[in-house]
Amino acid sequence: MEVILNADVKGLGKKGEKVKASDGYARNYLFPKGLAVEANAQSLTELRNREQAAQHKIDMDIAAANESKKKLDGKTVKVTAKAGQNGKIFGSVTSKEVAAEISKQFGVSVDKRKISMDEIKNLGSYIIEVKLYTNISAKMTVMVSE
Predict the structure, then answer these.
(1) Which residue, 30, 39, 41, 56, has fewest beta-carbon neighbours within 10 Å?
(2) What CATH number should be reported for the domain whose range is 67-145?
(3) CATH code for residues 2-65
(4) Sign, Cα dihedral of 111, 116, 118, 124
């Protein structure tokens, strides 16, 4: 009997897969526990619709990431910090501050955990990388001034 899994089942398959299972196993274990549904026309259509919706969401995320990359790639973010003698900053410039400045200056919301940068403890300019999506990132310059 062909079934569509509602959850991962060890030794059978992963959630959302259409697999063959013995009739007894399906009727006595998978169906009562809600782990699977019978693969009829309606459930196959629902599965196809879920897969298309998931793919559409991925496509939309990639398009949004590419749009953000166009806005950010090669741009300079200006950050101000108090500094002492010899251009040494009191404390350091964090990825949280950089993310806030990117949002303020370019209107693009970026998660602070997606910014990879070295520790910034002096005035000057630094190259950072902003990861927007899998395999999509933008290189930017952070200009730290007093």
Answers:
(1) 41
(2) 3.10.430.100
(3) 3.40.5.10
(4) negative
Mean confidence (pLDDT) of the chain = 92
Residue 52's H or E segment, with its range, is helix 41-72
CA distance linking residue 135 with residue 113, whole number of Å:
16
- The residues, any chain, with a CB within 8 Å of residue 2's CB and separated by 6 or more, are 18, 19, 20, 21, 38, 39
Distances 25 to 11, 14, 30, 119 between C-alpha atoms, Å: 12, 16, 7, 57
Question: Tokens 């003698």 identify what position?
Answer: 85
- Domain boundary assignment for the chain: 2-65, 67-145
Output the pTM of the full model. Answer: 0.72
Q: For the segment 113-141, what is each residue's pLDDT rounded down to a tens digit? A: 999 999 889 999 999 999 999 999 999 99
DSSP lists the bridge partners of residue 48 as none
